[in-house]
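Before going further, learn to read the protein records used in this course. Taken together, the tokens spell out the fold as the letters spell out the chain. A record is reproduced here so that you can trace the correspondence yourselves:

***
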Amino acid sequence: MRQRTLGVILIAIGLVGVIGTFLALVARPGRYFVAPGAWAPLGGVRRGPTCDPPVLPGLTVDVVLSDMGGMMSGARKMSVAASPSSVPAGRVSFRVWNAGMMVHELVILPLQPGGVGTRTVGSDGRVSEAGSLGEASRTCGEGAGDGIAPGAAGWVTLGLDPGRYELICNLPGHYAMAMFTGLEVR
């Protein structure tokens, strides 16, 4: 019985530590919702962003772009994660961290009727950006560029109307490898 009680106490202490660390990271103004290095065990960059965005106007959506995989799995898995996934209409700033080991970008598009991940990929490995509202693809800068380098951040602020949007990486082959997520604007 003493061993079980001791085990429960140790688990509780561990949970308190994890929750405390999470709250400390979230409460730091101007910092990312996802803790720097949090994606490292999944094959990403093993440190936080190499540059921080300035204080951005409006509501902020933190976006983490990642790629993982390697010799053991034989394949790369890619993702776009946004927090929060639903925001009120108006001015929305996107803070984007490339936690992967490849160059990535973030393009904001109106959602097609078929839903997230249903766009047609062309022979160049990209989807049409017709109707794009904007992008964060400049390493350590705002707006469009040549892509966000591994470990770096980029950002963009847009005025968004109510509706559903798709956040994607549109570098060749990345959308086809599941680099997309949805965003609801209410």
In short: Residues 2-27 form the longest helix (26 residues). Confidence is low (pLDDT under 50) at residues 12-46.
